[in-house]
Every structure is written in structure tokens, then in C-alpha cells.
Fold this sequence. Notes:
The chain is an alpha+beta fold. The protein has two domains: 2-19 and 290-418, UDP-n-acetylglucosamine1-carboxyvinyl-transferase, Chain (Alpha-beta prism); 22-229, Enolpyruvate transferase domain (UDP-n-acetylglucosamine1-carboxyvinyl-transferase, Chain). The chain is 32% helix and 26% strand. The strands form six sheets. The protein has a four-stranded mixed beta sheet with strand order 21-22-1-23. A four-stranded mixed beta sheet has the order 2-14-16-15, with helices on one face. Bound molecules: ligand EPZ.
Amino acid sequence: MEKIVIKGPTRLTGEVTINGAKNAAVAILPATLLIDGVCTIENVPNISDINITCKILEGLGAKINWIDKHTITVDCRNLTTTKAPLDLTSKFRASYYIIGAMLSRMGEIEVGMPGGCKLGARPIDQHIKGFEALGAEVTVGKGIIHAKASKLIGNSVYMDIVSVGATINVMLSSVLAEGTTVIDNAAKEPHIVDVANFLNTMGADIRGAGTDMIKINGVKKLEGNATYSVVPDQIEAGTFMLAAVATKGDLLIKNCITKHLESITAKIVEVGGEVEDYGDSLRVYCNQRPKKANIKTLPYPGFPTDLQPQMGVVLSLANGTSTINESIWESRFQYTDELNKMGAKITAQGKSAFFEGVEKLYGAPVYSTDLRAGAALIIAGVSAEGTTEIFNLEHIDRGYEDIEARFRALGANIERVKF
Ligand code: EPZ
């Protein structure tokens, strides 16, 4: 087993380059199932969620070839089965994209019930509602989802709740359907636009991605044989931005789309940090103890739930009492127990948490309870006095590539140790 050991405190300084977005890549790879050709995907993050996605695609008959650390080719010309490997699909959440893509391409698919970070109830009723609206039959039982359609026909799909996954999944399932599909109350996250751009590059006709109404005119075939580069990871960029503030550091964050980071920039400025916007990079620095602030997580363009724990570290060090209201997930405050072990004073009640700011955090053994909680604990460990040991690294490795090397390059005393 492995743990991360951090000796702090360190003021982070230097430059970091942001990788391709995990949540875009885990949708774009299943989207290649729609394509009767070979796609080259660049800027793919080299993380465990991507490795699992590749194995699932291979299990369906795709041929995958890593050209370099961040570029792969995917050949889905000869798919061999409509049964996805159950153990792998149950391992992470984004395996639900296999359903939309395979329904479109093969008219049938069986997958294990999607797993992923334990953030509370994670229903997929909106995905199923979308598939059924297009004419699919979906059954769920004994941990298996089976979806089948002799023909998919475009329809109107109103999302009862703004859902990233359901929006993308309905896009995937309607691209090759007969006629037009309209998704109303669609999610607007940057990775939705990225998946639509990818599919359009391959011959799809998707309009309005990035707004709350997406129109998909079904096409007969996606030919592929093109190259696409995954959008930079908004959440990884935000993680380093908040690390700069929590450690009173000074970071140049390169290869990001600053427009995607406006809600985070606004909050950083509110707590007393400085952000200089250079279009495709940001300098973030903070010379003072953060000020208190209140946060409510919301779908894009609101403050992202996936940066809530990292922001929680900043607020646990702020001057005054701050509140975070989590409006997306039921259980995204498990990290607060770990921060409290490091001297934070946080009271979490249901979907709200109250942060009575402390001047310092102190190193302690802590457990990463989910992916973003893990990122928050690394930031906390770098800013804290003494030694922090972080356990349960599998969560962190799902979404952040070479995380300790990249923090080390910014001055952190951090290493991964076997035990
Ligand atoms: C995506 O999850 C991300 N994962 C999550 O990132 C992120 O936290 C989340 O969007 C919100 O931004 C991927 O993209 C792989 P949703 P997703 O469907 O698509 C409810 C990370 O750390 N809902 O937008 O699963 C749901 O319970 C991860 O990188 C239904 O009720 O999230 C939640 O309250 C964690 N029925 C809300 O909608 C449904 O059918 C938003 O969920 C679907 C969702």
C-alpha cells in the first residue's frame, strides 16, 4: 500500500501546466464507440479512471493504442460484444456513458451499475428517462443495467434536474437516432461542450451545447479518422489556484481556459487573493490570511462542487467564520472530519458546513474519502505545520496525474511512500 507524506508548511511558487479534463475524457472515450473509424485523442490525462475506461472499451472489442503519455488512438470498427465487463463498469461512475454510446451504435448493452466516489445517492433516472424517450427499453436489476432498442427515434427530453452525465448520455444516444432530439434544462459544463465538439468533428450535428437547450439532428454514420484534443481540466486548474491561496503562494497556472474559471477567480478575489488573467494562463497569488466568504455550489457557471473541498481548506484558514452550502451532493463534507484532525474547526450539518477559521493547520494522519477530498488534504498538508500522512490514495489517482511530482515541482516537501 502507499501513502503520501507531506512536511509543511510550504509557500507554493512556480509554474504548473494543466492536463486534459478527466470528466471530458471519460465521456469522449466512450463516444468513440459511435465511430466507424480510428480516432486519435490528444491531451488525455494519464489517470486510473482513463485506464479503466480503456479496458472497458477493449472488453467491447475496441483496439486502443497509446502513442505517447497523453495521446491514444481508438479503433471501434469491429466491436465484438454488447456485454461490458461488469466488474470494471461497476468500479466508476462514468461507465454509464457506455450505455448511451452502445445503444446508439449496437442497439443493446449490458453494464454493471456505475460505482464511483461515495458522495451520497447517485441515481441515474434522468439517463434512463432520456434513453426511454428515444425508444429504448431499460431494465435494472441485480446490479446490472440492460438497455435495448431496435431503433432510436429523436424526441424532446426535459431534464428534471440539471445533470452533467444525463445530458451527455442523451447526446450520445441521440447522435445516430432518426430525426431530431432536443434536450431542455441541459447542463452547461465545459466538458459537455467538449464532447459535443468531439462528436461534431467526427460528423455529428449537435447545436447549442453550453446552453440549457441542446438540439441533436441525427446522422446516419460517424466516420471518424480525425484527431481531437481534450479541453484543459477546469477542476485541476481550480485545485492549483486554491492551493496558491491556501499556502499564501504565487503560481502561474498554464494551459487553462480562464473563462471556465470565473466563479473560482471571483471567490479567490473575495477572500483577498490576486488573479492575473492571461487568457490561456493565470497567475494566482495571495499575500495575506484569507478573508471569510460564503459559498454555494451550483451547476456551471456556478461554483463547482468538485472544488468545494479545496475551497474548504482555504476557508478553514480564513479570518472569520464562513459557510459552504453544498447543493449537488448529499455527502460531500466527509473531508471536514479529516481537516478537523489537522486543527480545523468545521461543523458540518447535512448539506451545510460552518468554518470557524483557524490561523494554522497541523500535520496529522488523514484519509482521503473521495477524489476531491484527497486533493483538499494535499493542499491542507502543504499549508500545515508538521507532517501529514494521507491514506487511501486510489481516490486521488483516479483523477490527478503525477500529483505529488507536480506539487514537489512547486516547492512542496511531498513524497509517495510504500508501507
Ligand atoms: C459529474 O457527475 C462529474 N463526474 C462529477 O465529478 C461532478 O461532481 C458532477 O458531475 C457535478 O458537477 C463526471 O463527469 C464523470 P450529475 P454526474 O448527473 O454526471 C442528481 C469528480 O470529482 N441526478 O450532474 O454523475 C445527482 O444525484 C466527480 O470529478 C439525479 O437525481 O453528476 C446530483 O445530485 C464527482 N438523477 C445532481 O443530479 C440522475 O439521473 C447532479 O449530478 C442524474 C443525476
